[in-house]
Amino acid sequence: MSDTAAKPDRRIAKSKQALKRALLTLLAEKDFQSVSITEIVRLADCNRGTFYAHYEHKDALLADVIGEVTSGLIEAFRAPYRDKASFHLDELPYTSVAIFDHIYRNAKLYETLLNGNVLPNFREQMFRTLKSVSMEDLYVAPDESSSKINTELQIIYQTHALLGLTDHWIREGFPYTPEYMAEQLLLIVNRRPGKVVLKHGGMP
């Protein structure tokens, strides 16, 4: 690509990133329906013409933000098994788990999008995305103990568990490092529960 062609591409990317950052900044203060295009372009330091050169309306801008974060989420989710034909969960190093690092690097974005007043169905979108990727990518070879388990129900359970863990981590203000979260996730997934003892010796 020539320098002449590259410069417009860089300008376009820079303008779109400025618009996306402006939208996220505004979403940290108010719900999406209350955000105006005028506010977005003012904060992004551009004009309405620039906005409409890239997006038909503010919903298209939000869709671009969601698309970008979703692509990053999928890439991070697939990181432990990328380029593998098969793997054993109990042999995965915690350093291969990238989802917590991805979320931490985009902390402000996830904090904003998981705010129920901003985008009420974002967590559900995350669930549908990871469930779909799991159903498409993964097959757990059955053994005697798991032959009766419904694969889809297992994936639904595991996806909700993962999102519950990440959601708690985000809402508590990231009290643990991404590395610690990755290590804990694998310890939890690989644990084989034994006898469960009631703390108070039994129900009254």
Automatic annotation (TrEMBL):
PROSITE patterns: HTH_TETR_2 (PS50977). Transmembrane segments: none annotated. Gene3D superfamilies: Tetracycline Repressor, domain 2 (1.10.357.10). Residues 13-73 form the HTH tetR-type domain. It comes from the Bacteria. SUPFAM superfamilies: Homeodomain-like (SSF46689). Residues 36-55 bind DNA. The keyword Signal does not apply. Pfam families: TetR_C_8, TetR_N. Keywords: DNA-binding. InterPro entries: Homeodomain-like_sf, HTH-type_Tx_Regulator, HTH_TetR, TetR_C_Firmicutes. GO terms for molecular function: DNA binding. This is TetR/AcrR family transcriptional regulator. It comes from Paenibacillus hemerocallicola.
